[in-house]
Design goal:
The protein is α/β, with parallel strands linked by helices and 258 residues long. It has one domain: TIM Barrel (Alpha-Beta Barrel). It has 10 helices and 12 strands. Helix 2 links the parallel strand 4 and strand 5. The longest helix has 11 residues.
């Protein structure tokens, strides 16, 4: 069995580390550069950096923060927020990222995924999906809808259908972020994660709701995720990366230990 990955999410607003609950009530909580270095030294497998207001503000991502974080770590580093073109993606990769995350722009221009995949390789392109639970309907038969612009814009697109299309377009990985679970620390959206993991053949990263090591174990096993993304429990010092990994290894999951 391949090692499961633990990924830390750094949501950045105006150059500062930020955290929200269900995409609202966002608070600044620290410095992303020093935080990234600390998590790297504690053994995190990967880091994801999101400039959370770049798309809604219709501005470019903060490349200086990206390069400053990249200079502090030596693990895979994925960056998203405000990437609207292959050239935007190239700038982020040149600033030190190994992967680009596309979300809002991919919904508006699905061929962006293909163009980026053709230019840099599928392994560099991550399709990030912000997902809201909705009533089952003809448009959303899974009961989950894609939402864009940092949770501000409903699209009417079914989440499972979009995941399948993202794979077909050339994404090498999916981040599935449950808006309903985001920041709650009450557990991942297991049903959503499992539905998407079973629908695609590329790695799925579960995001939103991780509050205890047991939650990670559940989504990596029952939810069939390849990786789990955590934020609040690290940011607020409730658990360290090492504590989480030691728990998961003790439950029989293969983990990379620093």
């Amino acid at each position: 069995m391949l090692s499961k990955r633990i990924i830390s999410c750094l949501d950045v607003r105006d150059g500062k580390l930020a955290k929200s609950v269900k995409f609202v009530d966002t608070k600044d909580i620290g410095d992303p550069v020093t935080t990234a270095r600390r998590y790297y030294e504690d053994g995190i497998d990967e880091l994801v950096f999101y400039d959370i207001t770049a798309s809604s503000d219709k501005r470019d991502i903060m490349l200086d923060v990206v390069s400053n974080v990249a200079a502090q770590i030596f693990i895979p580093f994925s960056v998203g927020g405000g990437l609207r073109s292959v050239d935007d993606c190239k700038k982020v990769l040149l600033a030190g990222a190994e992967k680009v995350n596309v979300n809002t722009a991919a919904v508006a221009d699905p061929d962006l995924v293909t163009r980026a995949s053709d230019a840099f390789g599928a392994q560099c392109v991550v399709l990030s999906m912000d997902v809201l639970a909705v009533p089952v309907s003809k448009a959303t038969p899974s009961g989950y809808e894609i939402v864009t612009h940092g949770g501000r814009t409903r699209t009417g697109i079914d989440a499972v259908a979009w995941a399948r299309r993202g794979e077909q377009l050339g994404a090498g990985e999916l981040v599935v972020n449950s808006i309903d679970a985001d920041g709650t620390k009450e557990g991942y959206e297991i049903r959503l994660t499992r539905m998407i993991a079973e629908a695609v053949g590329i790695p799925v990263i579960a995001s939103g709701g991780g509050g205890t090591p047991e939650h990670l174990y559940q989504v990596l096993t029952e939810g069939k995720a390849d990786a789990a993304l955590i934020a609040s429990i690290l940011h607020y010092g409730e658990y360290s990366v090492r504590q989480v990994k030691e728990y998961l290894r003790g439950k029989g999951l293969p983990m990379r230990m620093a």
